[in-house]
Amino acid sequence: MSPLVVLVGPMGVGKSTVGRLLAERLAVGYRDTDEDIVAEQGRAIAEIFVDEGEAAFRAIEKDAVRRALARHDGVLALGGGSILDEDTRSLLAGQRVLYLSMDVEEAVKRTGLNAARPLLAVNPRKQWRELMEARRHLYESIATAVVATDGRTPEEVTEIALDALELKEA
């Protein structure tokens, strides 16, 4: 078993929204590893970062992604930083991976780059740019298709994604 589509991209790009729309259009289930982590840990991701640090969170995330990739056959959304792990990137090889991209101005509009995002707590614009400089090549290296979300509705992104991935609606 493996997912029909795996969504990757930065925080706030719309992985959850587009993932749900894709799942609906393809008549398959939807799963989000961030939601899995919150349910398993009984606390918000920001709390895990504060209480245990990023390294501990990434270990939890790596396990959640591994399980979801092995057990879910629908649309799967991964947390923005999950691709930092080399083992996770290896597991994504051969999967149908959709990288949803956006620029910093779109990120500001969508998320406000607020403190609920633990990696963006201080100087959010600068930190977002630095995160993307470190991650963009990783997203691109595993992507089957890339869809820019800037200025597009979730429905438009979903339609473009279906075409880019050559998927037919159910």
Structural summary, described in words:
The protein has 170 residues and is an alpha/beta fold. 54% of the residues lie in helices and 11% in strands. The protein is built from eight helices and five strands; from the N terminus they run E-H-E-H-H-H-E-H-E-H-H-E-H. The chain has a five-stranded parallel β-sheet with strand order 2-3-1-4-5, sandwiched between helices. The longest helix has 19 residues. It is globular, with a radius of gyration of 15 Å. The chain starts with a strand and ends in a 6-residue tail after the last helix. The model has no long low-confidence stretch (mean pLDDT 88).
Number of strands: 5
Residue fraction in strands? 5-15%
Residue-averaged pLDDT: 88
Strand order of the largest sheet: 2-3-1-4-5
Radius of gyration: 15 Å
The percent range for helix content is 40-55%
| SS field, number of helical segments | 8
Quick synopsis:
This protein is an alpha/beta fold and 170 residues long.
Quickly list its features:
about 170 residues, alpha/beta, 8 helices, globular
